[in-house]
Amino acid sequence: MDTKQPQVTQVICQLENAVLAGFPAPLFRRAADDGVPVLVVRLGDREGVVPLRGLQRRLGIANDSPDGVMLGHIGAALDFVSELRPGDPLPAEILTGDASWAPDAGHRHIAARRLRERLIQWLRATGVKGADGIEAADFDRTDLDAALRERIHAAFAEVARQLRLADTLDAIAALQSLVEDLAYIEALRERLLLKSRRMARKLDLIGQMRRGDGWNTDMLTLVRRLSQTALTRIGARLNEVDALSDDIIAALGRGPGQQTIIRAGRDWLYRTQRVFAPILAEWEAAPAEIDAQFWNRLGRTHRLLAPRFMDRQEWHQARRGADA
Fold it and tell me: What does the pLDDT look like over 151-184, one tens digit per residue?
């Protein structure tokens, strides 16, 4: 399978406004507290931080002007990179919709196995001759006998006929293309969903150990609840993409909106994974016990989860209470 990343015409972060271009060593990133895109500049030994949209209004930069468009690109790019400086390339996600990162070979293998199993189920349900003698692992074998090669060829010939493709090679290419797309989803299933589940299980274990002893569990209870909400939403995104291959022929035929759904799910999951990767790694390494580090870690987890997975009205009330 060809797993090379697509070639993308590079577009760099570049601004024409004299004020913006005149800042020494400017840096764009998201604010730690609310995630708003900001411009960061050095002011002597201090750091100045200005929200991009506020700066745009102050400088009178129209949204459809070259700098206005670029500022929009910068804000979107910060979902996929931690920071940008003038001259840095913009990520592929906001230029072509392709991913700027790559899944591992193991994730491609998982995606291929899932799709091949779906394909075999369809072939058997359709009554394609010889389908009962094909297993998912056979597609990777190099020692196929003539009879098995013929059965696999017949399977792809039927896929080509259903999709009105020129030949079996086009059908194989369609499967490989879908495998490549869904390998990203498998990577994020492992890196986000499974690690989030392990964090939630550790939080549940600690809560169960301290139940009924009078210990103040308010913060732990809140973080456990938010963790479950996060798992539900992450799972829903994965399920939405997984459902596309329920009808394997429609999936291989790239039905209407299919790639949009896959890429939207991939990018949402990736943005979420980038934000939570450090705290998930901390929970992976942490023992299931209460100490000062536990409380610090729990507080950081709450600050990440609350603005993203707390009910909007509840979040605003919590913010007002914190500011009071």
Answer: 888 999 999 999 999 999 999 999 999 999 999 9
Sorted by where each begins, the domain ranges of the chain are: 18-94, 105-172, 186-323
Could you tell me how far CA 66 lies from the centroid of its own chain? 29
CA distances from 32 to 51, 235, 308 (A): 12, 26, 13
* Six token digits for residue 129: 């001759």
pLDDT at 144 exceeding the cut of 90: no
In this structure, how many other beta carbons lie within 10 angstroms of the beta carbon of residue 89? 15
Give the mean pLDDT of 219-242. Answer: 95
Residue 216: other Cβ atoms inside 10 A: 8
Sign for the CA dihedral angle at 312, 317, 321, 323 comes to positive
Between CA 256 and CA 140 the distance in angstroms is: 30
pLDDT of residue 192: 98
**Token representation of residue 251:** 């999936």
DSSP 183-207: HHHHHHIIIIIIHHHHHHHHHHHHH
Phi/psi at 216 (5° precision): -70, 110
Any residues with CB less than 8 A from the CB of 19 and at least 6 apart, and which? 59
Say how many C-beta atoms besides its own lie within 10 A of residue 122's C-beta: 20
Q: Residue 208: what residue type?
A: Q
- Give the whole-angstrom CA distance, residue 300 versus residue 226: 13
**pLDDT at 209 > cutoff 70:** yes
For 256-285, the pLDDT digits (tens) are 788 899 999 999 999 999 999 999 999 999
Contacts of 15 (CB under 8 A, 6+ apart): 21, 67, 70, 71, 86
Cα separation of 31 and 156, whole Å? 51
Pairing mode of beta strands 27-30, 83-84 = antiparallel
User: CA 319 from chain center: how many Å?
Assistant: 27
Looking at residue 47, its amino acid is E
* Residue 83, amino acid: E
